[in-house]
Structure formats: C-alpha cells, structure tokens
Amino acid sequence: MNRFGLALKWLLFVWMIAVIWAAFMWIPSAQGFKGESSRIVFFHVPTAWVATLAFLVSCVASALYLWRRKPKYDFGAAVSNGLGLLFAVLATVTGAIFAKIMWGAYWNWDPRQTSITILLLIYAAYFALRSAVADPEKRATLSAVYSILAFVTVPFLMFIVPRIYFSLHPDVITNSDPNNSLDSAHLKVLLASLAGFTGLSVWLYSVATRIEEIRHRRRQEVL
Amino acid sequence: MSRWLAEALAVAAKDLRAEFRTRVALNSLALFALTTLAAVSYTIGPYRLATEDRPFLLSVLLWIVIFFAALAGLDRSFVKEEESHTAPLLRLAAAPTVVWAGKLLYNLVLIFALMAMLAPLFCVLMGFEIAMPWRFVLVLAAGGYGLAVITTIVAAIIAQALTRGALFSVLSLPLLLPLLIIVIEGTTAVATGDLASYSESLRAIVTMAGAMTIVSAFLFPVVWRD
C-alpha cells in the first residue's frame, strides 16, 4: 500500500474515534427525545446513507458491466451490494432500538421500516440469483440486469410509499420547519459522521474488490 | 412500426395457441386463485369484518390472491422455451424487443383473464361493495399491467438460471411489493369513493409501470442474447 493510502487509513481511524467521542460526550442530548435516545441519529442516519449509496454504486457498476463487459465492474456491483446489505441491517437494528425507546415497540411497520425491509429483500434476492447461475459471465449479466431493475423501484419506496402512509419517523433532514431542525452542533457532528461512514465504506469497498480480483485471477490460473 | 407490432402479436399468438393446447399456465393461475378465494371466503365470509375495516382489508385480500396466483402461473413464459429447446429458433426468428413485447402481451392476456374471472367472483363472495366501479376496473388494469411487466422480465432472467421455480418468487416479490402497496391503496380508495387518494395511487401505479416498461425494454435484449 502506498503512503497516501496509509495516511488516509490513519485519518479515518482518528476521525471515527472523534465522531464517536463527539456523539456521546460533546453533544448534549436533544430536547423532545426520551433519555439519550437522540444520540443514535449519529449512527443510524450514516448507516442508512451508506446503504443507499451502495445501492447507487451497484447500479452504476452494473450498467458499466453491461456496457464494457469487464469482470471488475461485476465485482464492484457484487461487493457494493454486500456492503449495502451489511449497512442496511445496521440501519434496521439501530432504527428498531430507537423505535423501542421512543414508540414502545421494536417493530411497527412504519413506512420507513417497510421500505428498508423491501430493500433487504432485494439485496437478498440479488445474492440468491448470483448463487443460482453457474457460468460467471451469465451470472454477471443477469445480476447486473436485476440490480438495475431493483434500483428503479427504490425511488418508489423512498418517496411515494412514505407519502401515502403516515409515519412516526423523525424528519429532521428534509423538513422545512425551523423549530424542528437540527441545531448547528448536532448538524456538524452528523455531517462529520456521514463523512466518516462514507470513508469507511470506500475503504471496505476497495479491500473487498481487491480480494475478489485476486480470487478471479486465481481461478483463471487454475483453469 | 406496424411490422414490429405484427411480429410481436405473432409471438403472443403463438404462445397463446401453445397455451391453449396444454393450459398449464391458465390452469395453475385459475386453480390457485379459486382455491385461495374459497379458503378466504370460507374463513372470513361476507360478515366477519367490521364495516370500517372492510374496504382496506378486502383490497388487501383481493390483491394478495392476484399477486400470488400470478407468481404461481407466470413463470412459464420463458422457461418453457428453454425446456422445449425452442429458444434458439425464437432468437433467430424474431428481434429481441419483438420477443419481449410478445411475451408481455401473452402475460397481459393471462392476467386480464384471471382478473376478469376473479374480481367479480371476489366481490360477490366477500360482499365487497365498490363505490366507483369503472375506476376500480382502471386500477385493476393498471395494476395488472405493472404486474405483467415486472413478471415478464424476471421470467426472462430466471429462465437462464438453475433453480427456476423458487427463484421466480424470490426475485419478483421485492420488485412487486411497492406496486402491491400502491394498488392496495388505490383499490381501497375506489371502494370508499376517495377521489384524491385514487388519483394519487393511479398516478403512482402508472409511473412505476411506465418506468419498468422502459427499463425492461432496454435490458431485455441483454438477457435474451445468449
């Protein structure tokens, strides 16, 4: 690994520690939330963001694969769907903990919980499809098509379904009510955490794609 | 354009003719829907539900029967080409988009036939009163079209995979769930006579079905090319 990459890795290490410290020690707990439950926003929102970002990356990589037909794009799509699955599970779990504290139950089929469930099902279906096709090229093509199809349904989950149904989910990011927005200290930590988690996912992505490429080369050598 | 349409109609006609010889898909669609309807009607019947819950719960039941019947019957459209080894001939005979449009038409005919049989029967057996009947037909038609578009492209994908039967439901369901949620909302709206909610749902169904049509038309040649 080159010097620059190593420096970035150390920066990420220090950055994440600072974010965790700020989230638990520096920020006072927010008004209107039970106990310390508002602190989960610094971890719940970034994991949900990374899950959505991974989905976008996978869609782009899939489209690139269908266009260029290079195996590396297929690895990119598969790896980023795997990361998406991991972070979507983390977002679901942190969300359920918050729901238990604030609303009284871990799960109540709130629209956001419904949409994340469907997202998890899509990720799981993607890997079910990959495991069902033996030929690598066919597997890459079919899973790329499925990934793009799935991506088309995501806007409907994110925007239309929550608009039709009433949601208890706090809407601090997108609403315009000045009384209900984050104060600047909270916003700073949240943005720092978003940057940290994005960096973390980029690092995980680069490690996982390199592993996939080594595996691919080994398979070619054996053949 | 007219030539393209004529070829697509020819593919659909070929499939329908083959279907009427064996009636595999029609039988599984109709029998699945009828047995589920019988079970629902026997256990719930027209009097069990509270009046204020009826429009929503009956819409949910109606669409669950339609969606799962579709999952039971619509996976055949491409699998049967691979199983009977007629797919290479079809690849030679027609352009990919023609095959896609033909198969979509075939699936549409099957779904509309299923709905034409099931929806009136469901309304009679369950005492489902619809405030806006023509708009109900429109929601059924739009929802059925969305269902046909999504199941057609997924059927094309699974025809190339190893474990076909189970995979069809696994891949279709996540793509269909948003549509299912919206059509249930729309059906509840036409049952209660809520025009605003009906218009919002119908627009969402048409947007989703339209987006899926364009994406599948673009992606189908990639799946179909061997």
Structural notes for this entry:
The complex is a heterodimer of chains A (223) and B (226). With 223 residues, chain A is an all-alpha fold. Chain A has one domain (38-169, 183-222). Chain A is built from six helices and no strands. Chain A is globular. With 226 residues, chain B is mainly alpha-helical. Chain B has one domain (2-224). Chain B has helices spanning 2-22, 24-43, 54-73, 76-83, 87-93, 96-126, 133-158, 164-192, 195-224. In chain B, helix 6 (96-126) packs across helix 7 (133-158). The radius of gyration of chain B is 18 Å and the shape is globular. The chains are: A mainly alpha (223), B mainly alpha (226). At the A-B interface, helix 4 and helix 5 of A face helix 7, helix 8 and helix 9 of B.
Poorly predicted spans of chain A: none
What's the shape of chain B? globular
Largest sheet of chain A: none
Number of helices of chain A: 6
Q: Tell me the radius of gyration of chain A.
A: 19 Å
Number of helices of chain B: 9
N to C succession of SSEs of chain A: HHHHHH
